[in-house]
Design a protein that fits this description.
By secondary structure, the protein is an alpha/beta fold. Helices cover 37% and strands 14% of the residues. It contains 9 helices and 9 strands. β1, α1 and β2 form a beta-alpha-beta unit. The longest helix has 18 residues. It starts with 38 loop residues before the first strand and ends in a 6-residue tail after the last helix.
């Protein structure tokens, strides 16, 4: 997967704001509710400096993209390194038809593909992605916290090759061979996904591989991803977010106020002061100033959560759900948020 850097890509997500997230995206995959999702198992070998937090975030983003294509991914992190006693559990077995193997590497061993390749795949079971490329890309855009999203999209792309075949690049969607400014804009709003036809082929391929699948306990933990919070803030936000009983994880990003304003401008969220959401990418962005006032924080976070609960871009609909969430949060959740 190659990318040609035509211009510095800022975090521009013009369609990500909740107010317009309901727009249609022609040709992109949105499986029907009654379309049963086949399960694929991905064994992950992390040979890079990617932290567990980054890796989990990348798994979540790749999982979201695969879910939109009608696939469910089971992620198994396998031990690596000279001090590892040996493969353990499911990782010690030879790959079965139901298994895919993913290596997270640091960077290419040579400079031949420097800054041009996110990864590669060896059909039908081995995919590799380069963590350092994703990290550099995020850092160059002054958005380090987006590295898991970039890495997750690269993972989804390479896993796509394993299910679609080696000659499976396309002119649209996540399987495009070159990622330029437009593709990164789509990536940042959560709209760089598989096409409808690709999704159908991947589901068919996954079903032919499935004989049985491994489902370890705790694999589908429902805790949200919260970036930039203190321990008390994380406890409060986790408590509030669990009130909605949403099956899919949300990501909450807390930013220093000036950086929040930059991100807000990128989203064209001019009417918001301290918080806004992206329904498509399932993210809530908060200014750090929000935590100076508990009542303001409670009012804003529950309002944003109301958008996700109702899947509505209308403020009135969100506020109806938010009012119920506030009443429960006052009873259940801690009020210390500094």
């Amino acid at each position: 997967m190659k990318t040609q850097r035509l211009a510095k890509v800022r975090f521009v997500a013009l369609l990500g704001l909740a107010g317009i997230a309901g727009l249609a995206f022609p040709g992109m995959a949105f499986p029907a509710e009654n379309d049963a999702s086949p399960t694929i198992t991905v064994q992950i070998y992390n040979y890079s400096l990617a932290s567990p937090t980054v890796l989990v975030g990348a798994e979540r983003e790749a999982g979201r993209i695969l879910r939109m294509a009608g696939l469910r991914a089971v992620w198994l992190e396998c031990p690596v390194g000279p001090f590892t006693p040996g493969p353990q559990g499911h990782c010690e077995k030879a790959p079965e038809a139901t298994d895919l193997r993913l290596r997270v590497l640091g960077a290419p061993l040579t400079n031949k593909f420097q800054d041009t390749v996110f990864g590669f795949a060896v059909h039908p079971v081995l995919a590799s992605v380069y963590y350092e490329y994703a990290a550099r890309r995020a850092k160059s855009d002054d958005a380090d916290f987006e590295a898991p999203i970039i890495l997750g999209c690269a993972i989804a792309h390479e896993l796509g090759h394993l299910l679609l075949g080696t000659n499976s690049h396309s002119d649209a969607g996540i399987m495009q061979p070159r990622w330029e400014s437009n593709q990164f804009r789509q990536l940042m709003i959560g709209n760089l996904v598989f096409t409808t036809e690709q999704s159908k082929l991947m589901r068919e391929q996954a079903r032919t591989r499935i004989v049985s699948f491994f489902w370890p306990s705790g694999l589908w933990a429902e805790d949200p991803v919260i970036i930039g919070a203190t321990q008390q803030q994380e406890q409060f936000l986790t408590c509030v977010l669990h009130i909605s009983d949403d099956d899919d994880r949300l990501t909450v990003v807390i930013l220093e106020h000036q950086k929040f304003l930059k991100i807000r401008e990128a989203f064209h969220a001019h009417k918001t002061k301290l918080a806004f959401s992206s329904l498509l990418a399932r993210r809530i962005y908060l200014s750090a100033r929000m935590f100076r006032d508990y009542e303001m924080l409670l009012r804003c976070i529950t309002h944003e959560l109301g958008h996700f609960a109702t899947q509505s871009v209308y403020e009135g609909n969100a506020e109806i759900a938010a009012d119920r969430f506030r009443k429960i949060a006052r009873q259940r959740c801690p009020s210390e948020v500094q």
